[in-house]
Design goal:
- With 281 residues, the chain is of the alpha/beta class.
- Helices cover 22% and strands 32% of the residues.
- The longest helix is centred in the last third of the chain and has 14 residues.
- The model has no long low-confidence stretch (mean pLDDT 94).
- Bound molecules: flavin-adenine dinucleotide (FAD).
- The site of flavin-adenine dinucleotide has 21 residues, from strand 4, strand 6 and helix 2.
Length: 281
């Protein structure tokens, strides 16, 4: 299991709204993290607040032994991290979780991000580039302030398509609209990747289902321990050969899952299972 370390904040950049970019020194995370993995981290080194919180690893710098987070302050844990001064201490375990799998040969990676769900895709784009692959990012939010990690993608020459519900940047409306428009253009084989609010990931899973495309989603349940002990983050997953869905820990078996194996709220079975039953029957 990755060690729990006291880490120091080496850089802090306050962005618009409740967002902040934080950089910590942590040699193992900087060296080993893969796209889609996360850290469990909390401000300070005392027992208060008691629980670490999960955050996707946005970027790593193995030479400086640092990693960065893109964090939205929504409650006590994230606010305490966002308020840390440079040099401030935190407790951190990582890298944790199952990363994104690269697309099969010849398939284009289409990444769909909502708000802070952009975080795992910067590492993913870098991994794809190292493997000589391409990708395209569809980045959605309520308003332009939710879309603040754009420049690192464009600096890497990645095509980034913004969408905002209020029309303040890019397409007005949901991020799945430009995704569908792109797919309607017949771009060739594609694999979908989604990270963001549940409703968005479920919409991307439906697009994949209708078009027969593979898809991976990075689920975002509440998490207590991050190492499979507290069972706070269980999600319903059903593989094709399983007659019943099983509760699986998103922290150890995810957060990235094959979208076809997720049993979304209100559904009786996963797409993978429904397909398997159709084939048999
Ligand atoms: C695998 C994984 C990766 C994640 N990566 C990131 C990331 O890169 N950046 C990031 O900012 N967050 C990320 N999150 C979400 C982050 O962990 C939560 O926002 C954080 O745990 C909230 O803790 P808190 O103590 O600040 O708020 P809490 O005290 O737990 O909650 C306070 C209030 O905020 C609400 N709330 C809690 N979580 C959210 C949320 N996600 N969105 C909106 N409202 C919420 C609660 O309902 C409550 O009303 C990730 C979560 C997971 C599971």
């Amino acid at each position: 299991m990755p060690a729990n370390r006291d880490v120091a904040l080496v850089a802090r950049e306050v962005l618009e709204g409740a967002y902040v970019l934080l950089t910590f020194r942590h040699p193992e995370v900087a060296r080993e993290a893969r796209a889609g993995q996360f850290v469990m981290i909390k401000a300070g080194t005392s027992a208060d607040p008691p629980l670490r919180r999960p955050f996707s690893i946005l970027a790593v710098d193995p030479e400086r032994e640092t990693f960065s987070l893109f964090l939205k302050a929504v409650g006590a844990g994230s606010r305490a991290l966002a308020d840390l001064p440079p040099g401030g201490a935190a407790q951190c375990v990582g890298p944790l979780g199952r990363p994104f799998e690269p697309p099969s040969d010849g398939s284009e990676a289409l990444m769909v991000a909502g708000g802070y769900g952009i975080a795992p895709f910067l590492l993913f784009v870098r991994e794809l580039r190292r493997a000589g692959r391409t990708g395209r990012v569809f980045y959605g939010g309520r308003t332009v302030a939710d879309l603040q990690v754009r420049e690192p993608f464009t600096a890497l020459g990645v095509s980034l398509v913004p969408a905002t519900e209020d029309g303040s940047l890019g397409h007005r409306g949901r991020v799945t609209a430009p995704l569908e428009e792109y797919l309607d253009g017949g771009p060739g084989p594609a694999t979908l990747y989604a990270c963001g609010p549940d409703a968005m990931m479920r919409a991307v899973a439906r697009v994949a289902e209708r078009r027969g495309l593979p898809a991976q989603v990075s689920l975002d349940p509440w998490m207590g321990c991050g190492v499979g002990t507290c069972l706070g983050c269980v999600v319903r997953i059903q593989r094709p050969d399983e007659p019943q869905a099983k509760y699986r820990c998103a922290c150890t078996e995810g957060p990235v899952f094959d979208a076809a194996t997720v049993v979304w709220p209100g559904e009786a079975a996963s797409l993978a299972r429904r397909r398997a039953v159709e084939v048999k029957g």
